[in-house]
């Protein structure tokens, strides 16, 4: 009886595989967890102070639905530094990237619309689309470099006629970034086909390459692109919940409508915090980025020495090594490592069928924790793996 009351769309989605695994970890005493996307840095002082000041100055009322103009302007400045051009009228501040993603999908999806989503990918895309009655079509990311095969993408677009293409770079879970060559090919594909792009750039501040490439840099298709970004990872403030969506005027007005009925506005005091962050805490962001590069290099070398096949990530703070040679499914691998080795990492299958054969290790923990985890993985491999 109770079950029959739940909507079919809700029945069709599951709790995220990342959360499910996290819940298992919580029950294993002494387990070292490298599962979640929360950096171990504190929120930069300037941001904390700005939030406190906003409370003391009673900046605690609703803001405009789109968010405070000061922050929207600063977001435009920040994006301009990456050759991405929006005006503040084209920006809406959201409750984290999550609300931004849901608003965008709700703005475009009619029941039955086809949406192209990469596999492996952040699991929320698929769940949001299903919640709205959309139809998910996966496109595979190929090889250990997880590249888009543009020929097969064109073929899928022409066969299936999807309404939206989701791009997700720097990638959770693979750590890959968008290169110039593929960005340019995607530019042509989008120009020539009747399709919109949702580009999730939540980790834009954590690219380890010299130059940042984004589909949102392509001015000739700007009317076909919606950019989702945020500050959860950038300022290590996942619990403070501020993100943003940028889109050309014709779209942003509709996105703001959805946003308005969802949440009215993002939390006022944290909008002031993010504003101070963009004005005064970019040095902290650079410090975190350098530290992530150090940790990435450390973990990469250690995993290589243990015999893992792994691609050097170019962004975000995740490593996605192959476990194919262990002859175990990713969930079996992670269960055994958790229960027998006391290290928690996420099965690649949590990111879709394209993630099977891989595991996601977050290096958002300190080098000391990472070193401990590597030691435990080594011991576990010696006892439980026949390589
Ligand atoms: N997009 C990606 C790729 C993510 O990894 C995450 C969070 O892990 C989000 C969006 C959601 O970000 P937020 O915490 O700001 O809602």
Summarize the structure.
The chain has 387 residues and is an alpha/beta fold. The protein has helices at residues 2-5, 8-11, 17-26, 45-56, 69-80, 96-108, 124-131, 150-160, 180-192, 249-263, 268-280, 282-305, 330-341, 367-384, and strands at 32-33, 91-94, 114-119, 135-142, 147-148, 164-168, 196-200, 225-230, 243-247, 318-319, 343-344, 346-347, 359-362. The model has no long low-confidence stretch (mean pLDDT 96).
Q: How does this model look, in words?
A:
This protein has 387 residues and is an alpha/beta fold. It has two domains: 2-42 and 283-380, Aspartate Aminotransferase, domain 1 (Alpha-Beta Complex), CATH 3.90.1150; 61-280, Type I PLP-dependent aspartate aminotransferase-like (Major domain) (Aspartate Aminotransferase, domain 2, 3-Layer(aba) Sandwich). It has 14 helices and 13 strands. The protein has helices at 2-5, 8-11, 17-26, 45-56, 69-80, 96-108, 124-131, 150-160, 180-192, 249-263, 268-280, 282-305, 330-341, 367-384, and strands spanning 32-33, 91-94, 114-119, 135-142, 147-148, 164-168, 196-200, 225-230, 243-247, 318-319, 343-344, 346-347, 359-362. The strands form three sheets. It has an eight-stranded mixed sheet, with helices on both faces. Strands 10-13-12 form a three-stranded antiparallel sheet. A two-stranded parallel sheet has the order 1-11. A hairpin with a 4-residue loop joins strand 4 (135-142) and strand 5. Helix 4 (45-56) runs antiparallel to helix 11, helix 5 packs parallel to helix 11 (268-280) and helix 6 packs across helix 7. The protein is globular. The site of pyridoxal-5'-phosphate has 13 residues, from helix 6. Pyridoxal-5'-phosphate (PLP) is lined by residues 37, 96-98, 122, 168, 172, 200, 202, 230, 232, 238, 243.
